[in-house]
Design brief:
The structure holds 2 protein chains of 2 kinds. By secondary structure, chain A is of the alpha+beta class. Chain A is built from 6 helices and 17 strands. By secondary structure, chain B is an all-alpha fold. In chain B, helix 1 crosses helix 15, helix 3 packs across helix 4 and helix 13 runs antiparallel to helix 15. Classes of the chains: A alpha+beta, B mainly alpha.
């Protein structure tokens, strides 16, 4: 058993696994760009980049890096390039994970003149208000795992208060019966308690309904979760500059006011490559809609892992340079090497 | 040393062959077209190209006249020139579609503007574009649209309503007025210009060659004075006129091509002098190429990486640069001539589209952050250069292994050069990619978002990293390294060209053009066939037991 584990460990830190993982990641990436062209950005984000198997692939790569570094410990001076490059990559991946786990990435849409402090996250959730209880939020992923009628395919949520259960029994495009409007995505819900079942209702995306079971009622919303910022943002004005004598846009800029209880009022101008930094949050101009009123969509980001990402990047660049440079220095200029002389070597 | 001397001789001989020119000052006069203030010369050449088609190697001319003289003629004698059969409609299917006589190629403006079938075809196209504005145009539709644009531009030249040479008046920033305004809105500044314009056009009309030069110079001088007052000094316009005239890119191509021929001849005939000639011409080409790029950077005010053609220009230059560095480090002079051959193929692709490397356009907003644009894009594209050079060396290596050229030691040196190219490319690519992440985290709100171009770049670099790790692990021999380097370049092609022109998705897609991919697919297919054939040859030799 111990020998098996030993061999497993050696293979985990070995070059052939690295080659395999690098090529696997490469082909996945290339295939994903094709998938994106076919099915769109949302689909590829959901089905590839945020899918569990992809995260597993990256985790395997991280494991390979850790094993490769650990197996060559203690590190010698001439291995500095190798260590920096590979440890740097680990630091970068760690920083990315920290930002993903603890950071914020959402949208704030402001019509001109409006104020808000709510950032909408790029996710879906059921928000439930049971009378007498605190409102509760269930993150859901119905696009990927749609509930369907039938045993085992329904999704159940236990509501606070102990008795009631919210059951999602179906999901798909749904049209309000009489209206001629286009169908929207909706989830079919009912309440249960003990053995009793309430009536089922379709709840469309970005809407709220009241469900009932006997005398009890519960209000449910199918919404994107929101996070409150510690300050309020107001869009004061917006401007598009064009190149002279043409319709080509040269740049966009927004004038916003920040009302912060700790830091007071301030005004800022944002433009295409000049975002607004405020208390660790960064606001970027993401998009513009020109319906009745101009509405600017801002991306609001907080990336606590960013310093680690930057550090990791620097280490990778420096380490790789050292790896290649010191390799070339030790190579004689007119070397005669036959392919059989190269052997897989566990120690670089 | 001798090679460098030869290179400098070639360049200076070329420089001496520059002629004097009557219309020199007029050429540099500012004209506003499509958002860019450019020299009259550039605008005139663009129009000439619209009318008589892109010429690969010859200078633009319409019915024997050079572009500026032709433009003046159009303005001086519009009635006669409307009837001149000067507009080339080369595509037979376009002629058929628009009801034009199929047997002729040249048409007059009058004829085309009056053709009801053409007008209907254009209106139909406009209606279709309004309905589906994002849809890519079919090639025939693009040509029809171009023809419509040509007719509109020429109409603007005939009546001078499209000749925006009058600089903005004080208080009207950005509003360049047309030359025809001199007839309808005489103001104080217009009053001085009017007689100057009349003098020039009369001289052109009368064919009085002696008077044209001074009249043009007088008008140009006054226009420049007004431009300077409006905050538009001559700046880089003279450099642009110079670049238009000298066409360093074409000469660079010629030098590279001749150098490659000399190199091949030297290899075939085994004459050392041919090899030195190849090196000298290659270096001359590199100097001219550098000059062409330098001019373009000065004129455009930004690095040469905003459009696909510009990036080809830059990448080819990077390949030759790396070849020079490796040639010096490893004492392999033939590498320069070979890289020159590679560069001549790339430049041919660029010149076929446009003599300068592409029309200069104003930058899309996201690219206006100049420093990071320079650093990030230049680094990544230099990585492509290294991979391109690796591709070329790999082809030589494949041939060498398949045909058992020279000896094992020479083939091993090829493998070493190849490995260095891949290392350089990988480092530049990884560094550039991470810089891109830094730029994205500042401009778009995230370091990495799996955007199509980001992912494709990462994927192509991962393939090369896999290649390097495999070599380290002993999984790839010298021949295997060459095969892998060729196949890995497919990833680079996908990132460089495919994502923008085949996929057309993601945040990086601003360089849209109607990419014509048939020839590319054919070239790729031939190349893969070559790789397969070489592999079979090597395998056959190994089976026969020779080494």
């Amino acid at each position: 058993m111990r020998r098996v584990l030993d061999r497993l460990w050696r293979h985990l830190g070995a070059l052939p696994l690295a080659v395999l993982l690098l090529l696997a990641l490469a082909f996945t990436g290339l295939a994903a760009t094709l998938y994106e062209a076919r099915h769109g950005t949302t689909a590829v984000q959901r089905d590839v980049y945020r899918a569990p198997w992809f995260t597993l692939l990256l985790a395997l790569l991280a494991l390979n890096l850790v094993a490769a570094l650990a197996q060559r410990y203690p590190w010698r001076a001439r291995q500095a390039g190798f260590v920096l490059a590979h440890a740097g990559l680990l630091v970068l991946l760690a920083g990315a994970w920290v930002s993903r786990a603890f950071g914020l990435d959402g949208e704030l849409a402001l019509p001109q003149g409006a104020t808000s402090d709510r950032v909408t996250l790029r996710a879906t959730s059921l928000q439930v208000l049971v009378p007498g209880q605190e409102p509760v939020l269930f993150p859901v992923a119905f696009e990927r795992n749609p509930p369907a009628p039938g045993l085992g395919r329904e999704v159940r949520f236990s509501l606070p208060g102990g008795e009631l259960v919210l059951v999602a029994e179906d999901y798909g495009p749904w049209r309000q019966d009489d209206a001629g409007a286009a169908p929207t995505l909706a989830v079919k819900l009912r309440l249960e308690a003990g053995g009793q079942r309430g009536t089922s209702l379709w709840l469309p995306w970005l809407d709220a309904r009241t469900l009932s079971l006997g005398a009890r009622t519960v209000r449910v919303g199918f919404l994107a979760p929101e996070v409150a910022l510690p300050f309020r943002v107001t869009l004061l004005a917006f401007e598009t500059l064009h190149y002279p004598g043409s319709q080509r846009p040269a740049s966009y800029s927004s004038l916003v006011a920040i009302a912060d209880p700790e830091r007071g009022l301030s005004r800022h101008t944002l433009s295409m490559n000049r975002p607004l930094h405020h208390r660790g949050y960064v606001l970027f101009q993401a998009g513009l809609t020109n319906t009745e009123a101009v509405t600017v969509t801002f991306t609001v980001v907080r990336a606590p892992g960013l310093p680690a990402v930057y550090l990791g990047a620097l280490l990778v660049v420096a380490g790789t340079a050292h790896l290649f440079w010191s390799g070339s220095r030790s190579t004689p200029r007119a070397r005669l090497v036959s392919s059989s002389a190269r052997r897989y070597d566990a120690r670089p | 040393m001798r090679a460098l001397g030869l290179a400098l001789c070639v360049v200076s001989v070329g420089a001496c062959a520059v002629r004097a020119d009557d219309l020199a000052t007029l050429r540099a006069v500012a004209v506003l077209d499509d958002g860019r203030v450019q020299p009259f010369d550039t605008w005139a050449r663009e129009n000439a190209r619209r009318v008589s088609g892109p010429g690969l190697l010859r200078a633009e001319s319409v019915m024997g006249l050079e572009p500026v003289a032709w433009t003046l003629a159009l303005m001086a004698d519009p009635q006669r020139w409307r009837r001149a059969a000067m507009i080339r409609v080369a595509d037979a299917s376009l002629r058929a579609r628009t009801g034009l006589p199929v047997e002729r190629v040249l048409f007059s403006h009058e004829e085309l503007a009056a053709s009801p079938t053409l007008r209907r075809a254009l209106e139909d196209l406009q209606a279709r574009r309004r309905q589906a504005p994002a849809r890519q145009l079919a090639p025939l539709d693009s040509e029809l649209l171009a023809l419509g644009d040509t007719l509109a531009v020429l109409a603007g030249v005939f009546d001078q309503t499209g000749v925006h040479v009058l600089p903005p008046r004080p208080g009207e920033a950005g509003v360049w007025r047309a030359l025809s305004d001199l007839d309808v809105q005489p103001s104080a500044s217009d009053a001085t210009l009017y007689p100057l314009r009349e003098a020039l056009l009369q001289a052109v009309r009368a064919g009085a060659a002696a008077r044209v030069g001074p009249a043009a110079a007088a008008l140009a001088q006054e226009l420049e004075r007004l431009a300077l007052a409006a905050g538009q000094p001559v700046g880089t316009r003279r450099w642009e006129v110079h670049s238009n005239r000298v066409r360093p890119l074409m000469w660079a191509w010629l030098a590279y091509a001749l150098g490659a021929v000399a190199l091949l001849a030297g290899v075939a005939v085994r004459v050392a002098r041919c090899g030195r000639l190849g090196l000298g011409l290659g270096l001359a080409g590199f100097l001219l190429h550098s000059y062409a790029i330098g001019l373009r950077v000065v004129i455009a005010g930004r690095p040469p990486v905003a459009t696909l053609h510009e990036s080809v220009l830059w990448v080819a230059w990077g390949s030759v640069l790396l070849a020079c560095v490796l040639a010096a480090t490893y004492r392999v002079p033939s590498l320069v001539g070979g890289a020159g051959g590679l560069a001549s193929a790339c430049l041919l692709v660029v010149l076929a589209a446009h003599p300068l490397g592409g029309a200069l356009e104003p930058l899309v907003p996201v690219l206006r952050d100049n420093v990071w644009l320079s650093v990030h894009v230049l680094t990544i594209t230099l990585g492509y250069s290294a991979f391109l050079l690796a591709l070329a060396v790999a082809h030589v290596a494949l041939l060498a292994h398949a045909l058992r050229l020279r000896d094992a030691g020479w083939r091993a040196r090829l493998a070493l050069l190849l490995y260095r190219c891949v290392q350089v490319g990988t480092w530049l690519g990884v560094t550039g990619l991470l810089m891109g992440g830094f730029w994205a985290s500042r401009a778009w709100g995230r370091f990495w978002g799996w955007d199509a171009k980001e992912t494709a770049t990462l994927a192509s670099l991962l393939v090369y990293l896999g290649l390097l790790h495999a070599r380290r692990a002993g999984l790839l021999g010298d021949f295997g390294l060459a095969v892998a380097s060729v196949l890995a370049f497919l990833g680079v092609l996908w990132t460089w060209y495919g994502v923008n022109f085949v996929l057309r998705v993601g945040l990086h897609s601003y360089g849209f053009a109607s990419g014509e991919q048939t020839w590319l697919v054919v070239v790729l297919a031939c190349d893969l066939a070559f790789v397969a054939a070489a592999s079979l040859a090597v395998r056959w030799r190994r089976l026969r037991g020779s080494d």
